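Lab channel / #folding
Pinned by the channel admin:
"Please post every new chain as: sequence first, then the structure tokens as a reply. Keep commentary short and put observations after the output so the thread stays searchable."

First post following the new format, from NK:
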Amino acid sequence: MTPRFSLLDQLTLAVFAVQAAFALHIGFNGPTTPLPLHFGPDLQPDRWGDRVEFAVVCGGLTLIGFIAATGLALAARLAAKEGDVFRRRSLRTGQGILLFAFAAIGLMIAWLSLGGAPLEDRGAILMGGLSLIFLVLGGFVGRVSPNRLVGVRTPWSYGSRLAWDRSNRLAGRLFFLLGLAGVIAAPVAPQPLALHVLTGAVIASAALSAFESWRVWRADPDRTSL
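Reply from TO:
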């Protein structure tokens, strides 16, 4: 049985409380000059807004993350009460990954919109932050048990435990390697080309992992029919 309010739950509450406070602070005390709210493929701002709109964007992102993390936490507690240790562990893993991802995204948004970073720095910030997220995701996704929230979720991986394990193990390795390479290359790689290459590699890795789930499912004699 997990604690009623675990350390991960406390960290979740603290991170999203800080993000909410930051959004309120910007809304009332932020810069009065226009702030970039969106960047195009060339990493140049293509949409601007005032501090209130920026605060609404940050606050909305915080609310979405908090609702998702709370849902995972509640589902993990329910799994613990039912004695499903593997499902609880997967849900807690998902909660931790989601918390880290939203914290990293929040920092990147604040840095890009408020820091006035030049083009090369924007690319390095985005590439480094996204690579770090995939590095953490890759370190955990290969060990999660079947669930509806985290991992390679295809009809074939749900129809075969072997397909789930192998496709998620492959995705974990690919994401970890991509994340590690991205973190190392981010400070020196030419931008925005390097960021586009990383994005393409992530999409290709996800597609390859989905294909692996189908390939293993097709060969598994214990598979269930779709």
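NK: Strands lie at 35-39, 45-49.
TO: also worth noting, The CA atoms of residues 94 and 150 lie 6 Å apart.
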